[in-house]
Amino acid sequence: MRSIVQVVPKFSFGVPWFMYDLSNKQLIVSKIVPSDIRDTKDIILAETPIPGLNYHPVMPGGGGNRKLAFTLQLVKRDNFVGNVLLLKQFDMLRNQAKGFGALAARQFNPMPKVLYYWGTGSLPLVYWVAKADPTHKQGWVNSFGQPMYSEIEIELLLDETHAVYKAEEAFRRAVAVISEKVQIAQVALGSMTPIRTY
Question: Are residues 70 and 36 in contact, defined by beta-carbon separation less than 8 angstroms?
């Protein structure tokens, strides 16, 4: 079998990577942390061509949804169940939410939402799960035919209508004001902290 490069943070104490499935009421945790977390939000601007003008007037069209995207390694060198236990937790995220007590989802059951904040610089926020697709790696299948190494691609869409988002808006404004003062002071005193590598 080929070797795997796993990213496992080494701190004396640290919050492990986690995601809470609000719809199915399950906590998903992993010792391995995700790849780079891509955090995007479209800024929508409409450029309107007008005959005779040397430029296109710009009209603000609002903002898009905030999106998080990352890949998480699911590794379990087990000759019996492999990584199936964790895989099935993620599988709950791409099927209609019904909770663990129901045997089958009803028609029109919503897709799951999760509570997430790890690695984003935000408060815990509620996201829709837009993607939870695993790729099972070649050569990492145990003697029972179960995968032992998969990489799951996650995409989350922020639910800005949820009540907890109001706290994030207040947090953003407060931290931005504090940051302005701190950065001005550091520049004035010539004490900008250099980037450290761990």
Answer: yes
Q: pTM for the full model?
A: 0.81
- What is the distance between the alpha carbons of residues 48 and 128, in angstroms, rounded to a whole number? 33
Pairwise CA distance, residues 111 & 88, whole Å: 16
For the sheet containing 125-136, what is the strand order? 26-30, 17-21, 113-116, 125-136, 149-158, 58-75, 38-47
Cα(133)–Cα(14) distance, integer angstroms? 27
Specify whether domain 17-161 bears CATH 2.60.120.10. Answer: no
Yes or no: say if 75 and 148 are a contact pair by the CB < 8 Å rule: yes
Mean pLDDT taken over the chain: 87
Model confidence pLDDT, tens digit, residues 89-147: 999 999 987 655 555 556 778 889 999 999 999 999 999 999 999 999 999 999 899 99
Return the number of other C-beta atoms located less than 10 Å from residue 133's C-beta. 13
Provide the residue ranges of all domains of the chain, joining segments of one domain with +. 17-161
Round to whole Å and give the CA distance between 73 and 7: 9
